[in-house]
Every structure is written in C-alpha cells, then in structure tokens.
C-alpha cells in the first residue's frame, strides 16, 4: 500500500485511462532519492497490467550511464521479432542498437523515429504503458530516442512515464510530477505498518524529513537505539546507512557486492566468472541476501535499491575497484563491454588499451551514439602515450560532442586538444570543431578570429575551407573586416570564392558588384547549405524555397532528421516572404522540436526569429518582443528589423524610425534583413513628415533593387520613391512588377499606399479597388493592424467594407495543415507519418480534428479545397 500518494496516483491513473481511450501522453516523475518514484511506477505497472495494458519497463543503471544503448536494449530485447515490420531504415536503426548491424552513417534521430513507430505498432494491438525508471542514469543514446518518441505521441494509446532524480535527465516539453514528502499522518501510518514502536515514531519522522525510504531505513536502524545521525541531506544519510550495513558484512561478501555493483546489469554468470578470478563465489552473496541488501535468483542479481549499489561501489577502496573492473574486462563477452570496464581498470598510459577504446569509439559513433563515442575517444586520449594520437582522439571527441548536440562539451574537449598541439602547427580538424562549437555557443566573433588566424598556418585546401566558413560566420556577426579579409585570402590562395567576395562588397554597400557575384554563386554552387543562405541574402525567394524544399525532401527520404532544423529554418523564412504563414509556422514547429531533441538551444532561438516576424506582421506585440528577446546576440540586426516592423504595424512611427536608424549604425548595418526593412524606415519617416530621414535608406534600397533585379525588390523601391515624390506613375509601375509574383505582404502594402494616395487625391472610387485587394491579402495573412488600416481608408472613401473572414485553413494548427496538405495529394497515413516523424495513428488523429474545421468528412474531399 502507498501512503500519502493520492495526488500522484490520480495523475498516473489519468494517464493510463487516456491510453485505454486511444490517447497518448508522457509524464516525468521527478524527485530526490527515496521519495518513492519506483514505488509509484510499481503501482502503475500493477494497475495497468490488471486493466490489460502491455507494460514495458526500462531501468537506467549507474555503471552503464556511458554505455551506448544500454537502456534501449532492455526495451528492444523482448520485441526483436517485431523489428522487421518497421520501415527498412527504421528497422536497420534498431537492429544497430542490438548489434545486429552497424548501419553506418545513419542519422541519430532515426532511432527515435523507429522507437515511436514500434510503440505505435504495439498499441495497434492494445494500449501500452512504457515505464522508465532511474532515467538520470540513462545513456544519452537511449535517452534521446525515448524522449523523441515521448514528445511526438498523440493518439496511439501509449503512455510513457520517466522517473528521475532532481538533477540530470532534462526533458523540456514534458509534464512533470513531483512527489511530495509524506505528511505526518501518512508517515505515522507507514511506521505503524512497519511495527515501529510509538515512542520512536516522532523521532524517526523528524530525522527522515518525510522521505519514505529514509523512514523505512532509519526505522530499521533505530530499533532499540537512541540519538540521531549527524546532520546530512536525507539522501546522504540513507546512503551512509547503507554503507554502514555493507561495512558490517564479511569482506568476501563486500567483494561480491562490489563486483555486482561494478557490473551493473545483474548478469550473474558474468559476475561469477569475474569473481572466480578474484577468489570469491556465489556462496559469498548469502550474507548480503540475509541482510536484505541484495536478491539473487537464476535470472540475475538485484540490489534492494540503487543506493545500495552506490554504497557498495563507493565504499570500496580504489585498488579493489580497479581489480574488479580488470576482472570484468577480462571476462567480457563483447569488445564494447570490455571497453566499458577498461578505463576504470587502467591507471597508467597504455597504448593497447587506448587503441581498444578508440576502436570502440569508432564503432559507437557509427551507430550514432555520439555522446558515448565522445567519452570513449576522451578516455582513449587520457590513456594514449602518443601526443599526436591524443590530439586526434580529442578532436574526434569534440566532433562527436558537436554531432550529439553538446557544443559546450565540444569546446572543452577542443581546448584540451589545443593545449597539446605544438605552437605553429594547429590541427585543421580540431580548429573547425572548436570554431563550430564557439559559433553554437554564441561566441561568433571568437570563432571567426580563430578560423582566420589558423587558415594562414594550414595547407591551402584546409585553409580555404576555414576561410569560407569564417566568411559565413563573419557575415552573420556583421564583421566587415573579417569578410573582406577572407575574400582577399581566398583569392591569394588561388581559390577565389564568389560568395565570400560578394559578401565583402555587400558589407561595403557596393551592391552593384556584390549581388551579381552572389547570383553567379547561387546558379553554380553544389554546396547546398551556402547556396540556401546566398538565396536568402539576394532575395531570390523562389529559387531559395525550391532549394530548401528539395533539401527537406532529401533529408526526410534518407532519415537525416538532425539536418532538418537548419534547412527548415530557411524554408520557413521563404514561406513567410511568400505569405505562407501557416506553412512557416508548421516548419518552425517541426524545426524547434527536432532542435530541442538535439539540445541545439542557439539554433532554436534563430528559428523562432521566423515566428517573430510573423508576430510583427500580425501585430502580436507580446509574442514578437518575447521571441526577439530570446534570440542570440548575432540576431540583433534581424531583431531590430522585426521590432521596427512591429512598431510600424502598430502605428508607433517614431519608435520604428529611431530603432531602424540605430540598427543601421550598428555592426549588422548591411545585413540583407536590414535592407529589406528600408521600406519600413522610409514609410515611418514620411508618416512623421520628416522626408529628409528617408533619403539615405531610399538611396540604399534603390541601389539594392537595381543590382538584385528581383521584381519584388524593384517594385518596393518604386513604391518608396512614389511615397517620397507623390508620383502616381511610380505606384502603377510598382504594381505591374508586383504582378510578376513574390512577397504578397509587400504587394498589399503597395496597394494600400496607392489607395491612400488616390483617396487623398479625391478619387475615392478609384481608391476602393486597391484598398479592397490590400485588405483581402492582409486578412489572409492574419495581419490585423494592416486590415484595420485598410478598413479605415475604405470608410474614408464612403464605403462600409464587409468583415474579412479568414480562410478555413487559418483554423488549422500547423501540424494539422501539414498533414492535410499531404493527405490532399494522395499520401497514405503511413507515408505522411514517415515524412513528419509521427505515428500513423497520430496522422489520422490530426485529420479527424481538421475535417470539421474545413467542412469536409473524408480524404476524397480534401483535393477539392483551396489549401493555400
């Protein structure tokens, strides 16, 4: 019986009930050691099994926290016969976890998608409860796919519960439940059940602080005793109690307990093999069993509580721990298991051991368990006697840490490697890894400086690669000198780079020379990533969107989930320019979800910048300012442009103009986003009757538009000239160019300004058509402040405009819109699920929710709808 847990039980019961009704959910039970998390999971498992749910259980094991896929193997082992039913790449990913196939080169997130599909397939036969205990000790390669699946559950009938201690196992986005300490009444009832004498109860309750495990242990230890233990944290006092109990065991029993704790998995045959080499055996466990500290059966060895294992290990002398790990390494059945024990068994440099660890790291990295691979490479470097090998292994460790979404760890590893490098002989691989880590950590300027400094010392091919990367980083930070230096050095190396040279001209506002170079690069480059950024810089929205969509499709087809956030960010930005705000929000939501799974917090802030622009257009001030405020320093110019548009949208022309002028005087003054904000600056100046403040941004905009030759840019430039010159022919020419397509928000703004000009010219009849067209576009985009501005102008012409109703798709969530569009083109639920990294049942759930919003009842009717 559980005491004082009615709230927690109700929460778990609700999760299980939802799963029985076909809904999914995930919950994190977080609390200190001994608070009763495992007891709650036991209760949930018993109740779920009685109701017919299939219960899967995984437990993190402290000695296996750095063993790749250790916990996930527990989950998959009894389900191996179901793997072949998964899509091919997903089946291969899970077989790689079990060691059946290394599946080299796969994306690390593909394993998470495979776990999601596997759980969803199981739920087709009935609801599933997946329990993960001691999640703070999950290895990263197991934690990532389990969390990936948990965040994407919706309508499968799967419930997931993670139990973890206070520290470790970050699970942002999942609901948390924190069990409280037992109140006095519940604690008294528990002690009464344990037959603790009433005279001791108050003292034990006070000493335990309401921690259930402490109540049990302190009550057992204090029967017939008086006085209190020293003042320590409750968990530390419980651990101290276990150490004392283990200390009273015979020496041979303590050694067997140490073997069991160091081995960790409860593999009795393996433990006995190691024990034999140390002169102990199965009989020596009897005293630990009699003391109630361990349980031994044919299926394995288990400690009564994980803290008992911790006490058995930490209480042993270092020499004895080394001997035990050496014995376990000698009897290990696989090279990876041996590699798991070797670092703890080796105190001095050993070339042979280091080579084994490096080989294990390579195998582990090939299975995309990058965090574990980084640790193995680091351990190899610690034990390797050759300095050059140490540098190489630490470089690979840093690269693995980056691939695993841990730039902070990568930076530390790279710095350690650099301390071993001879002055004047930097390692190119190491330099690139360190610079990439700096950039991800927001140290963009330091990354640029490092790359340019080291490029001079590297061979020409490697130096050129550093310079190209450095030029891109420098563009984002607005470092004009660094971009120009990179372009000069690349030319001097005989490898001129049109992108770097073009960016250097743009940084000096020489658009006539810079933009043609970038256009050339975009049309000829095979470097998709750089081409995407080039397309955004020059404003070639159609080409950039096509490139981004093709790259997203390629990533989906090949299961390259980890590459998607960056590409989806570019796609989302072009979707905003194209007026596809709902599509952009769907792209942003997916990109943020994957970036969150990968720990890419810096990337999340950049991605959310796209949503900030949508919020500015829609006049959502709170959301816009929050998203801009969360962005990194390198986003400053973009953030100022977004806030300038927001303030213009809300009619705060003075703030908008002051902000944009200040941004133009900052380091990012020639960023493409500020050039695209020049129309906002010009309009704000005109609205304030200060046309002199519009002259410089107008000059820049016209020069940019002429050099870019993008119709939308030329149209906007003409509009701004009309705004400052009162020449209607410029409006008419701008509208002609707008008709060629691109940037509907800007097209509608031109229509609005033309309509306003016509009304002021006392031509209300002529004004109504452009004003109506503008209002319809603004309504479709959800640009509420602009709708009201157009409506006010129409009122001023003597017309009462009808309320503009948003299209039905505006009612859909981003995920629903994505699913509906794919379904409308004939994709099956399983195909949609594979593309969007969902389960087929969740796809059906989204369709079910979308149908009434669209006024349809089946897939067949979707193809007849306008889903733009």
TrEMBL record:
UniProt entry keywords in alphabetical sequence: ATP-binding, DNA-binding, Nucleotide-binding
Keyword Translocase assigned: no
Listed Gene3D superfamilies: Winged helix-like DNA-binding domain superfamily/Winged helix DNA-binding domain
GO molecular function: adenylate cyclase activity; ATP binding; DNA binding
InterPro entries reported in the protein's UniProt record: AAA_16, P-loop_NTPase, Sig_transdc_resp-reg_C-effctor, TPR-like_helical_dom_sf, Tscrpt_reg_LuxR_C, WH-like_DNA-bd_sf
SUPFAM superfamilies in the cross-refs: C-terminal effector domain of the bipartite response regulators, P-loop containing nucleoside triphosphate hydrolases, TPR-like
GO cellular component, one term: cytoplasm
Any Pfam family hit: GerE
Cited CDD domains: LuxR_C_like
Domain of life: Bacteria
Official protein name in the record: DNA-binding CsgD family transcriptional regulator/tetratricopeptide (TPR) repeat protein
Organism listed in the record: Nonomuraea dietziae
């Amino acid at each position: 019986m559980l005491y004082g847990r009615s709230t927690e039980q109700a929460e778990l019961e609700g999760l299980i009930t939802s799963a029985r009704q076909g809904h999914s959910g995930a919950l994190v039970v977080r609390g200190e050691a001994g608070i009763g998390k495992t007891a709650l999971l036991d209760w949930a498992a018993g109740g779920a099994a009685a109701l017919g749910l299939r219960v899967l259980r995984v437990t993190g094991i402290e000695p296996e926290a750095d063993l790749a896929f250790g916990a996930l193997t527990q989950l998959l082992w009894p389900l191996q016969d179901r793997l072949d039913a998964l899509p091919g790449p997903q089946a291969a990913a899970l077989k790689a976890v079990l060691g059946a196939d290394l599946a080299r080169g796969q994306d690390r997130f593909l394993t998470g998608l495979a776990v999601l599909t596997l759980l969803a397939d199981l739920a087709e036969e009935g609801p599933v409860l997946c329990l993960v205990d001691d999640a703070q000790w999950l290895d990263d390669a197991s934690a990532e796919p389990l969390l990936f699946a948990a965040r994407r559950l919706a309508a499968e009938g799967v419930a997931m519960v993670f139990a973890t201690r206070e520290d470790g196992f970050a699970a942002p986005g999942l609901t948390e439940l924190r069990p409280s300490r037992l109140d006095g009444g519940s604690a008294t009832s528990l002690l009464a059940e344990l037959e603790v004498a009433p005279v001791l109860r108050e003292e034990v309750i006070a000493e335990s602080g309401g921690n259930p495990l402490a109540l049990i242990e302190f009550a057992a230890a204090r029967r017939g005793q008086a006085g209190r233990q020293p003042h320590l944290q409750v968990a530390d006092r419980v651990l101290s109690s276990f150490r004392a109990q283990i200390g009273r065991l015979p020496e041979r029993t303590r050694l067997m307990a140490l073997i069991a704790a160091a081995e960790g998995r409860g593999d009795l045959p393996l433990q006995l093999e190691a024990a034999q080499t140390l002169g102990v055996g199965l009989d020596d466990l009897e005293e630990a069993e009699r003391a109630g500290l361990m349980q031994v059966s044919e299926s394995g060895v288990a400690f009564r509580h994980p803290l008992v294992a911790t006490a058995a290990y930490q209480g042993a002398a270092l020499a004895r721990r080394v001997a035990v790990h050496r014995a376990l390494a000698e009897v290990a059945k696989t090279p990876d298991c041996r590699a798991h024990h070797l670092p703890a068994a080796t105190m001095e440099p050993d070339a042979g051991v280091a080579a084994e660890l490096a080989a294990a790291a390579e195998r582990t990295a090939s299975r995309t368990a990058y965090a574990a691979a980084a640790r193995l490479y680091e351990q190899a470097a610690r034990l390797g006697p050759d300095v050059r090998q140490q540098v190489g292994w630490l470089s690979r460790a840093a690269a693995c840490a980056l691939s695993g979404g841990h730039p902070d760890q990568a930076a530390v590893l790279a710095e350690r490697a650099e301390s071993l490098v001879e002055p004047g002989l930097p390692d190119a691989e190491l330099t690139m890894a360190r610079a990439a880590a700096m950039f991800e950590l927001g140290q963009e300027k330091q990354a640029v400086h490092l790359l340019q400094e080291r490029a001079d010392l590297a061979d020409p091919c490697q130096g050129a690669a550093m310079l190209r990367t450095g030029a891109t980083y420098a563009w984002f930070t607005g470092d004009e000198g660094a971009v120009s230096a990179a372009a000069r050095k690349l030319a001097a190396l005989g490898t001129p780079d049109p992108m770097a040279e073009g960016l250097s001209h743009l940084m000096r506002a020489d658009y006539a020379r810079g933009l043609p170079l970038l256009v050339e690069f975009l049309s000829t480059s095979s470097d998709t990533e750089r081409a995407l950024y080039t397309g955004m810089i020059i404003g070639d929205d159609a080409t950039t969107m096509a490139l981004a969509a093709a790259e997203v499709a390629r990533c989906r087809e090949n299961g390259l989930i980890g590459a998607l956030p960056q590409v989806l960010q570019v796609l989302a930005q072009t979707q905003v320019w194209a007026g596809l705000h709902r599509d952009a929000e769907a792209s942003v939501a997916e990109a943020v979800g994957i970036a969150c799974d990968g720990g890419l917090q810096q990337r999340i802030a950049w991605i959310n910048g796209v949503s900030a622009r949508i919020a500015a257009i829609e006049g959502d001030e709170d959301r816009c300012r929050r998203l801009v405020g969360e962005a990194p320093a390198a986003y400053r110019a973009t953030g100022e442009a977004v806030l300038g548009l927001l303030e213009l949208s809300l009619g705060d022309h003075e703030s908008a103009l002051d902000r944009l002028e200040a941004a133009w005087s900052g380091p990012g003054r020639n960023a493409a986003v500020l050039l695209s904000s020049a129309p906002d600056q010009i309009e704000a100046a005109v609205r304030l009757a200060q046309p002199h403040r519009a002259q410089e941004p107008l000059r820049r905009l016209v020069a940019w538009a002429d050099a870019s030759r993008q119709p939308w840019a030329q149209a906007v430039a003409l509009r701004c000239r009309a705004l400052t010159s009162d020449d209607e022919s410029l409006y008419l020419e701008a509208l002609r160019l707008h008709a060629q397509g691109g940037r509907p928000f800007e097209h509608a703004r031109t229509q609005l300004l033309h309509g306003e000009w016509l009304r002021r010219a006392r031509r209300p009849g002529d004004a109504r058509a452009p004003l109506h067209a503008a209002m319809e576009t603004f309504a479709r985009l959800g640009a509420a402040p602009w709708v009201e501005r157009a409506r006010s102008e129409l009122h001023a012409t003597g017309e009462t405009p009808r309320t503009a109703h948003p299209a039905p798709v505006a009612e859909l969530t981003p995920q629903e819109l994505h699913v509906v569009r794919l379904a409308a083109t004939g994709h099956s639920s399983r195909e949609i699920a594979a593309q969007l990294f969902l389960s087929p049942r969740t796809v059906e759930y989204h369709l079910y929710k979308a149908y009434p919003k669209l006024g349809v009842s089946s897939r067949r009717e979707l193809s007849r709808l306008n889903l733009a």
